[in-house]
């Protein structure tokens, strides 16, 4: 992947009616953005035939695609039926996303449910290793990307993700810098952002910086609960210009998916800022 592409989490708000993915992809190209994340967050309701159309359209407009799996996934669920359903949802997302030509699936892996994090980690490792074996067997050409989560009750700290992705082949992190800031209550300066990128490179190799998947937005948070809600970048304390400088300075490549409420407005602002710094 050459350079850093910017795009929206979900189709742009300014997409023409009917507001579907095909029109959304065209709108991304019109706006001069480079990518978009298909939000299957309330379930995967796309047929194989529609996915093929999406793939054709994305190729035609040179828009790179990724997918976000349903929110209703908890790979640490204690009830077996919930655990099986969670895995099925992830596989179903991987199936449709790969037919769309998407490169990866971001997902919220788990809640600790009061279990000690050190017990949840090996469970995640075992389940994800199994899921990736199944994905390979079914010939889905897709990378699974557990997301860096914004609440201390959720599995997915920077350290957990870097360990997991270094130990499980086929897994790569989705680095959400807003969540990282909200979760830790820090990581909000140029030097801290550079340090995070250096940690990623040290743990996962240069390839990880050459193919990053980043989520970005402003964020509202408090020290106890972590993430409360997403904000537009200029209404939040997140030092996104410092982050963009660090990404540029470290030569990061891949995709930046903007998850601000104003979607394309911030995606364009982030892209312009990145080009200027
Ligand atoms: Zn997410």
Global mean pLDDT: 97
Flag low-confidence runs: none
Would you state the CATH class? Alpha Beta
Ligand catalogue? zinc ion
Predict the CATH topology: TIM Barrel
Biggest sheet details: 8 strands, parallel
Please state the structural category. Answer: alpha/beta
Q: Output the strand order for the largest sheet.
A: 6-4-3-2-1-12-9-8
In short:
This protein has 277 residues and is α/β, with parallel strands linked by helices. It has one domain: Divalent-metal-dependent TIM barrel enzymes (TIM Barrel).
Secondary structure layout plus pairing:
Elements: E1 4-9, H1 21-31, E2 35-39, H2 48-60, E3 64-68, H3 80-99, E4 104-107, E5 110-111, H4 117-137, E6 143-146, E7 154-155, H5 158-167, E8 174-176, H6 177-184, H7 190-204, H8 206-210, E9 212-216, E10 218-222, E11 226-231, H9 240-249, E12 254-258, H10 264-276
Parallel strand pairs: 1-2, 1-12, 2-3, 3-4, 4-6, 8-9, 9-12
Antiparallel strand pairs: 5-7, 10-11
Helix pairs in contact: 1-2, 3-4, 5-7, 7-9
Zinc ion is lined by residues 68, 106, 108, 147.
Describe the structure.
The protein is of the alpha/beta class and 277 residues long. It has a single domain, classed as Alpha-Beta Barrel (TIM Barrel), CATH 3.20.20. Helices cover 45% and strands 19% of the residues. The protein has helices spanning 21-31, 48-60, 80-99, 117-137, 158-167, 177-184, 190-204, 206-210, 240-249, 264-276, and strands at residues 4-9, 35-39, 64-68, 104-107, 110-111, 143-146, 154-155, 174-176, 212-216, 218-222, 226-231, 254-258. The strands form three sheets. The chain has an eight-stranded parallel beta sheet with strand order 6-4-3-2-1-12-9-8. Strands 5-7 form a two-stranded antiparallel ribbon. The longest helix has 21 residues, at 117-137. It starts with a strand and ends with a helix. The mean pLDDT is 97. It binds zinc ion. Zinc ion binds at residues 68, 106, 108, 147. Zinc ion is lined by residues 68, 106, 108, 147.
């Amino acid at each position: 992947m050459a350079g850093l592409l910017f795009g929206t989490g979900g189709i742009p708000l300014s997409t023409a009616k009917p507001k579907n993915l095909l029109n959304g992809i065209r709108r991304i190209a019109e706006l001069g953005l480079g990518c978009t994340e298909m939000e299957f967050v309330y379930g995967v309701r796309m047929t194989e035939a529609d996915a093929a159309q999406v793939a054709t359209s994305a190729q035609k407009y040179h828009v790179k695609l990724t997918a976000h799996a349903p929110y209703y996934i908890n790979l640490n669920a204690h009830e077996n039926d919930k655990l099986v359903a969670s895995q099925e949802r992830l596989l179903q997302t991987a199936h449709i996303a790969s037919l769309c030509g998407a490169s990866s699936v971001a997902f919220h892996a788990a809640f600790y449910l009061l279990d000690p994090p050190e017990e949840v980690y090996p469970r995640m490792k075992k389940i994800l290793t199994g899921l990736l074996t199944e994905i390979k067997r079914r010939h889905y050409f897709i990378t699974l990307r557990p997301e860096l989560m914004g609440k201390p009750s959720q599995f997915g700290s920077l350290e957990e993700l870097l360990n997991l992705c270094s130990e499980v082949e086929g897994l790569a992190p989705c680095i959400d810098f807003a969540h990282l800031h909200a979760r830790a209550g820090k990581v909000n300066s140029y030097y801290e952002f550079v340090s995070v990128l250096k940690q990623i490179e040290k743990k996962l190799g240069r390839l990880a910086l050459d193919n990053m998947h980043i989520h970005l937005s402003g964020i509202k948070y408090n020290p106890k609960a972590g993430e409360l809600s997403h904000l537009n970048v200029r209404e939040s304390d997140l030092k996104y210009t410092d982050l963009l400088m660090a990404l540029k300075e470290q030569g990061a490549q891949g995709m930046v998916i903007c998850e601000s409420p104003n979607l394309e407005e911030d995606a364009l602002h982030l892209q312009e800022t990145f080009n200027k710094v």
